[in-house]
Structures are given as C-alpha cells and as structure tokens.
Amino acid sequence: MSNQTNLALLEPTFQMILEDRMEGVPVINDRLTVKAIGFHKWQSYQLGILITPWFMNLILLPEIEADAEQAQLGSKKTHVFPSGSYEFIIGFEEELGFYLSCSLFSPMFEFEEQAAAELTAHEALSAIMNEDNVDIESQRRDNEITQIWAGEKPAPDKTDSLFTRQDNTAEGEQKTLSERIKEPTSRRDFLRGKVFTEGADK
Fold first, then answer.
1. Which of 6, 17, 92, 96 gives the lowest tally of CB atoms within 10 Å of its CB?
2. Which residues contact 168 (CB under 8 A, 6 or more apart)?
C-alpha cells in the first residue's frame, strides 16, 4: 500500500472513528469536521495536518512497505524540520495502516468554527517548514531547567525571565485569531496554544 493510497484513506478512517468510537465522548467539538490539510511529499512520507473534532495533529504517512517491519505501535520517533525537531508517536489503524502523529492541539474547544481550525493548520505547516522559527529560546530554557534540576545552577527568582513572558499588547487591545497566529512566536508557544490565550477572536 503506497502512501498516496493511505492519504486517500486518511479522512474516511478518522470519520469512521468519529462515528463509531467517539460518540458521546465529551472532548468532541461538534462545530468541527474531519479534514486533511496541506498534504505533500516530504522525504519518504506524505506530510500534512489532520483536523478532527477532538485533535489537530501533524501527520506523516510513511511508505508502509519500507517501514512496517520496523514500526512499533506507540513508540516515538523524532523528525527534523526546518523549524526544529518534532517527536511523533507511531499509530496504526486497520483501514489506514501505520502513521506518525505529533499533537498540535487537543482538545479542540478553542476553535469556534471549521474555518479557524483550517486557517491555523495552514499557518502551522508554514511555520514548521520555516527555518526562521527555530526555537532557540525554548532550547535555552530547557538547558537551564535541566541544569537547575541537576543542581548545577541555582533556581532563579520568580521574576526571572526564564519563567515569565513579556506581553507588549496594550491593555484592552485584542487581536483576531488570524492576526495572532501570524505573529512571531516560539515553536513551543504555538504548540501549547499560546495563540488562543490573548483574547477571543473578534
């Protein structure tokens, strides 16, 4: 089964999961639908984002013939994109085969409509493939926190910039979702949903 075939099966597979397994599950945002966004060839994969009413994930569909013997369900694999390294979990569905997923948002209640979710997915793909978004600041913070835990560096004061974030938005000013997701932001902030924490969409 080629990854092109898998791509054709991606939406139907997760639509079936929505109808068969997710009925009555409280994490469902019924304003959203299953949608594959921006899939294109990347190395030996099809890369894109899958939107469902319960998650938005970066997805890699491998060439199953080459990778199936080495794939271990639930194991993790790191892939490096222009913006940095991302950790994927290997999943499997009988109808689809093996796939790799990296969580961007879950659950999906921040999205009030399908259009907002799709816009975010397109912007996320652009950000991931943009080397200007390499998350050097978060890497620095990770290194400092590791040193603190190891006792190699004293813990900073609570006002230290390691644990605080500057917000230059004027008091009372709110930006639309489309404006917020286009602003410069660290990869970690984006994956943690920072774009949704600064006021509701107008």
1. 92
2. none
Average pLDDT score over residue span 163-179: 48
Q: Does residue 61 sit in helix, strand or coil? A: strand
Pair of tokens at residue 41: 């060839």
Higher pLDDT: 63 or 116? It is 116
Q: How confident is the model at residue 70 (pLDDT cuts 50, 70, 90)?
A: low
Report the distance separating Cα 53 and Cα 14, nearest Å: 10
The C-alpha atoms of residue 88 and residue 90 are separated, in whole angstroms, by 7
Q: What is the pTM of this model?
A: 0.69
Least confident of 47-61, 77-91, 112-126, 170-184: 170-184
Burial 162-196 (b: 16+ CB within 10 A, else e): eeeeeeeeeeeeebebeebbeeebbbebbbeebbb
Rounded to 10 degrees, the C-alpha dihedral 15/19/24/26 comes to: 0
Q: Report the C-alpha gap between 50 and 48 in whole angstroms.
A: 7
Q: What pLDDT is recorded for position 137?
A: 53
Q: Report helix, strand or coil for 186.
A: coil
Domains in the chain, CATH or no CATH each: 3-119 (3.30.1460.40), 131-196 (no CATH)
**ω before 107 within 30° of 0 (cis)?**
yes
